[in-house]
């Protein structure tokens, strides 16, 4: 089956009655006219899919008290949500590639909203975790579709600008949702869960905004066709490594930086929160400048430089002796993280052509989810033999080595030239 990109001719050049290709794959639909509405939908989805982590976090202590959960078992609250993304993103992406786009998005968001709201009715911790697993599965289905929607709606560097806008919205949500969660928990621990019923409005918007286009039908109904689609493209595995690395280093920082700063005397618990907030803010600002930077810098050079900045920040955090120094390092880490946040999606849409992005997008999301799960496990393994300071230095070394390894992404630099996605290599 040919993996060539769809014709770059304007939509009017394609007759509306074009017959499907001989392999049964539906012809690629022209880019939608309402690109702004598509971006608004993607931003709304991004905020909605962040609610069950950031808005719910303030309720965790009350959940522990209500259900008698100790600190060790409390970790399952987040892990139950993350694990489905590691194992189900690719199978669900393969399945939903065959469904009309608006039904796939609306269906996954509706399930996400229902599972979230139902957690307010959980009578025991086991039921709560089961609903978290179900919601995590819905997340695994929905999040890769945000990449596909942007890829369908935008072309050239406009795709990168759209991803940058989404990252800015994501950063704003990371600031606002915990505050909203605190206000809701003040009313009841059920508040952040009940509020997730509003996500059904985003599902309804998807039904109106999107059309019935489908992605190219995979040759097989399992994950093997997804990995073949990844390996068939130049640097396909390297593209997935960008998202994996970003989540590995980010979640290691979120999980262990407060302890590092407090034990080292650089900050107290509140100060550590300020440091993390500065890193998130810097990431949002850096993301906004990525499209402009791509006009002057090759994509691979910028990606590898971002990884080196992250490496330097991870190595510098143990050396920060006070709060101002830690804040300065956090800004540097945020700049690198913000660039990677945009590039991890931009590489997917610029490497695979329209109609063939659903499976690679699912594989990319699966790689990121694996990075989220691997971060605490990797640091915990290091802590069995060494200190937290040394563990951060090991992570810094890993980031630097990965930056050198990903120089192979230079082969994709031409795909970031203005214009439509260049033809992909035949699979």
TrEMBL record:
A single GO cellular-component term on record: plasma membrane
Keyword Cell membrane tagged: yes
Alphabetized UniProt keyword annotations: Cell membrane, Membrane, Transmembrane, Transmembrane helix
Taxonomic source organism: Conexibacter arvalis
Chain positions covered by the region annotation Disordered: 1-32
Domain Major facilitator superfamily (MFS) profile as annotated: residue spans: 38-415
Protein name: Putative MFS family arabinose efflux permease
Compartment annotation: Cell membrane
UniProt keyword Transmembrane, yes or no: yes
UniProt-listed Pfam families: MFS_1
Gene3D superfamilies xref list: MFS general substrate transporter like domains
Organism lineage string: Bacteria, Bacillati, Actinomycetota, Thermoleophilia, Solirubrobacterales
């Amino acid at each position: 089956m040919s993996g060539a990109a769809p014709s770059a001719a304007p939509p009017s050049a394609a007759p509306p009655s074009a017959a499907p290709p001989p392999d049964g794959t539906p012809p690629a639909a022209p880019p939608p006219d309402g690109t702004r509405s598509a971006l608004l939908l993607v931003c709304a989805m991004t905020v909605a899919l962040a609610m069950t982590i950031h808005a719910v976090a303030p309720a965790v202590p009350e959940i522990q008290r209500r259900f008698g959960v100790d600190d060790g078992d409390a970790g399952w609250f987040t892990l139950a949500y993350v694990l489905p993304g590691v194992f189900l993103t690719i199978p669900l992406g393969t399945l939903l590639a065959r469904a009309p786009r608006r039904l796939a998005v609306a269906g996954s968001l509706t399930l996400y909203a229902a599972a979230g709201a139902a957690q307010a009715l959980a009578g025991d911790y086991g039921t709560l975790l089961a609903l978290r697993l179900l919601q995590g599965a819905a997340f695994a289905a929905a999040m890769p579709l945000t990449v596909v929607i942007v890829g369908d709606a935008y072309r050239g560097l406009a795709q990168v600008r759209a991803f940058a806008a989404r990252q800015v919205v994501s950063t704003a949500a990371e600031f606002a949702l915990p505050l909203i969660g605190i206000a809701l928990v003040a009313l009841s621990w059920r508040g952040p869960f009940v509020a997730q019923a509003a996500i059904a409005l985003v599902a309804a918007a998807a039904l109106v905004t999107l059309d019935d286009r489908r992605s190219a039908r995979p040759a097989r109904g399992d994950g093997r066709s997804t990995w073949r689609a990844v390996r068939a493209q130049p640097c396909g595995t390297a593209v997935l490594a960008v998202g994996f690395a970003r989540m590995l280093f980010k979640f290691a920082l979120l999980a262990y930086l407060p302890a590092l700063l407090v034990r080292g005397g650089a900050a107290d618990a509140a100060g550590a929160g300020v440091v993390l907030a500065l890193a998130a803010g810097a990431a949002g600002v850096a993301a906004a400048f990525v499209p402009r930077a791509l006009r002057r810098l090759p994509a691979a050079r910028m990606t590898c430089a971002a990884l080196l900045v992250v490496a330097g920040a991870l190595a510098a955090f143990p050396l920060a002796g006070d709060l101002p120094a830690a804040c300065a390092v956090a800004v540097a880490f945020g700049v690198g993280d913000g660039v990677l946040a945009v590039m991890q999606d931009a590489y997917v849409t610029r490497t695979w052509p329209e109609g063939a992005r659903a499976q690679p997008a699912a594989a990319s999301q699966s790689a990121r989810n694996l990075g989220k799960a691997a971060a605490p496990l990797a640091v915990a393994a290091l802590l069995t033999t060494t200190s937290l300071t040394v563990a951060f230095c090991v992570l810094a070394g890993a980031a630097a080595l990965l930056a050198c390894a990903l120089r192979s992404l230079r082969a994709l630099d031409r795909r970031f030239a203005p214009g439509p996605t260049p033809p992909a290599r035949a699979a």
